[in-house]
């Protein structure tokens, strides 16, 4: 009886580990922190990130100065608040790669999707079907080094890339009479 | 013997500083100078520092808090066993007495962060209030009465950090007290070096850092002058420019990524004012209340 219970428990654990999310949501992110070299500084960033209500866990890689973040299930993730936490700790985000669970979404250049009131604008993206966990890189000003932002700004001509607010190119996705809507720019 | 020991200390300090400038990995948590960076926002930091010089003891308790991304405040209480202006300079009391309080604010003006590189510039202001008259002798220990304004630049390239500080101190004179310089130009050049660990794995690893700081000041002060007129010595006071420069090598341990313990020496390189010829030994402890 005991061994049957153990077997059932093991099966349950295995299943829970392999269960895929059933709805669109942010799963995780990998953040590179720029400007720091010490473990004390890294702990400052770590503590600041763990205070954010949408972060489940943050695991640091101290030597490479990156942070592996797991988001709470279905949480309204705010990359602006994430960037503010890193800045408040005294540093900057050098890169932000995030994993989003898509359900049969056909994306392409200038494709937008709305997740919990925030827009995500695809740039430099060829048309393709996304199904399952997909890695995207956020390329807005706070999430890349200045030189890289300037390079992107030469290619992404949309005004919304400069303002971070939904503009003409996002109109179809922005209902009228709504207050300015935050738009992040992502690439695959 | 004393001179020989001083020379050995000086040579060691200079050799260390030379080494520190060619190392490849650095830190900017200097025991003496402030870097252009601020501490983490909404985290209280407390620092206690004790220094010994000859038979004098100095103590300081400092609290630091970063209010916004770019602005931090610090308050310090300074204690000393030396009462230079009331008694001969070698007079000491057994218990360090409260001598001055400092309010310090720093604003980060410029930030450019990149992998293995950051450039930061900050402006700072400081007000020092001493309830009793102070002399220039205790100036380098932070016991003063006046205001300071300055700029700090910190550069980290390929993990070598260097900070430079320049500031102006405007003393507030006490009526009837001994004369102080009309103003003091301060400068500092600080270099930091992370010796251990060679690879970061966890927050529990003890960090061992070496620092070398050059701390200097220039001011116009009064000195006793003797002029000979018709074979007669005439004693009087005259003004001239003085330069003081100290080298401060230090070793620092960071424990649990939240406590700093540092041991520093301050060796005079140039002391035209003849105030602090002795080597000072300083011990500091700082804790981050995350």
Describe what you observe in this structure.
The complex is a heterodimer of chains A (188) and B (290). Chain A has one domain (20-187): Alpha-Beta Plaits. Chain A has 188 residues and is an alpha+beta fold. Chain A is built from 5 helices and 8 strands, in the order αβαββαββββααβ. An 8-stranded mixed beta sheet of chain A has the order 2-3-1-4-7-8-6-5. In chain A, a hairpin with a 4-residue loop joins strand 2 (55-61) and strand 3 (66-71). In chain A, 33% of the residues are buried. The radius of gyration of chain A is 19 Å and the shape is globular. Chain A starts with a helix and ends with a strand. Chain A is 29% helix and 34% strand. The model of chain B is unreliable at 13-25 (pLDDT under 50). The radius of gyration of chain B is 20 Å and the shape is elongated. Chain B has a 12-stranded antiparallel barrel with strand order 1-2-3-4-5-6-7-8-9-10-11-12. Chain B has one helix at residues 2-21, and strands at residues 44-53, 56-66, 71-82, 92-114, 117-129, 146-157, 160-171, 184-196, 207-229, 232-255, 259-271, 280-289. Chain B has a single domain, classed as monomeric porin ompg (Porin, Beta Barrel), CATH 2.40.160.40. By secondary structure, chain B is mainly β. Helix content of chain B is 7%, strand content 61%. The A-B interface holds A 32, 34-35, 37-40, 42-48, 60, 62-63, 65, 84, 87-92, 94, 145-146 and B 25-27, 29, 37-43, 66, 69, 111-115, 117-118, 156, 159, 161, 194, 199-203, 205, 207, 254, 257-258, 260, 288, 290.
What's this model, at a glance?
Chain A is an alpha+beta fold and about 190 residues long.
Q: What's the end-to-end separation of chain B, in Å?
A: 48 Å
The proportion of residues forming helix of chain B, as a percent range, comes to under 10%
| Quaternary structure type | heterodimer
Query: Which stretches of chain B of 5+ consecutive residues score pLDDT under 50?
Result: 13-25
One letter per element, helices H and strands E, the order of chain B comes to: HEEEEEEEEEEEE
Strand content of chain B: over 45%
What would the average pLDDT of chain B be, to the nearest integer?
83
Strand runs of chain B, count: 12
CATH topology of chain A: Alpha-Beta Plaits
Structural class of chain B: mainly beta
Number of helices of chain A: 5
Q: Report mean pLDDT of chain A, rounded to a whole number.
A: 84
Number of E-type strands of chain A: 8
Largest sheet of chain A: 8 strands, mixed
Largest sheet of chain B: 12 strands, antiparallel, barrel
* CATH architecture label of chain B: Beta Barrel
CATH superfamily placement of chain B: monomeric porin ompg
Largest interface, with counts of residues having CB < 8 Å to the other chain, equals:
A-B, 28 and 37 residues
Basic shape of chain B: elongated
């Amino acid at each position: 009886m005991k061994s049957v219970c153990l077997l059932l428990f093991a099966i349950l654990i295995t299943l829970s580990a392999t269960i895929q999310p059933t709805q669109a949501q942010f799963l995780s992110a990998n953040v590179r922190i720029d400007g720091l070299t010490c473990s004390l500084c890294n702990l400052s960033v770590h503590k600041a990130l763990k205070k954010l209500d949408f972060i489940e866990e943050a695991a640091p890689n101290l030597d490479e100065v990156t942070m592996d973040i797991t988001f709470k299930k279905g949480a309204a993730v705010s990359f602006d608040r994430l960037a503010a936490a890193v800045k408040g700790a005294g540093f900057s985000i050098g890169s932000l790669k995030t994993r989003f669970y898509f359900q049969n979404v056909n994306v392409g250049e200038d494709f937008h999707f709305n997740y919990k009131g925030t827009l995500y604008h695809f740039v430099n993206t060829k048309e393709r079907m996304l199904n399952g966990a997909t890695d995207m890189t956020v390329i807005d000003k706070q999430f890349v080094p200045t030189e890289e932002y300037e390079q992107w700004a030469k290619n992404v001509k949309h005004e919304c890339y400069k303002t971070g607010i939904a503009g003409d190119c996002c109109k179809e996705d922005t209902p009228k009479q709504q207050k300015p809507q935050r738009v992040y720019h992502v690439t695959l | 013997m004393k001179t020989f020991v001083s020379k050995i200390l000086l040579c060691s300090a200079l050799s260390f500083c030379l080494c520190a400038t060619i190392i490849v990995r650095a830190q900017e948590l200097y025991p003496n100078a402030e870097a252009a960076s601020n501490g983490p926002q909404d985290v209280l930091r407390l620092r206690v520092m004790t220094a010994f010089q000859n038979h004098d003891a100095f103590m300081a308790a400092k609290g630091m808090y970063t209010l916004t991304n770019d602005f931090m405040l610090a308050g310090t209480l300074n204690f000393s066993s030396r009462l230079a202006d009331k008694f001969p300079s070698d007079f000491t009391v057994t218990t360090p007495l409260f001598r001055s309080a400092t309010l310090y604010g720093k604003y980060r003006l410029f930030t450019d962060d990149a992998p293995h590189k950051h450039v930061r510039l900050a402006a700072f202001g400081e007000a020092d209030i001493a309830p009793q008259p102070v002399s220039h002798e205790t100036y380098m220990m932070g016991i003063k009465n006046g205001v300071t304004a300055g700029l700090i630049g910190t550069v980290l390239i390929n993990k070598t950090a260097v900070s430079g500080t320049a500031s102006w101190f405007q003393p507030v004179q006490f009526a009837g007290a001994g004369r102080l310089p009309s103003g003091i130009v301060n400068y500092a050049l600080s270099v930091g070096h992370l010796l251990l660990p060679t690879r970061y794995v966890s927050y529990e690893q003890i960090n061992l850092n070496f620092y070398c700081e050059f701390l200097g000041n220039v001011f116009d002060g009064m000195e006793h002058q003797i002029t000979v007129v018709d074979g007669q010595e005439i004693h009087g006071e005259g003004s001239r420019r003085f330069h003081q420069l100290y080298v401060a090598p230090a070793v620092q341990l960071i424990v649990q990524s939240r406590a700093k313990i540092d041991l520093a020496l301050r060796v005079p390189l140039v002391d035209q004012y003849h105030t602090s010829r002795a080597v000072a030994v300083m011990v500091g402890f700082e804790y981050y209340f995350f």
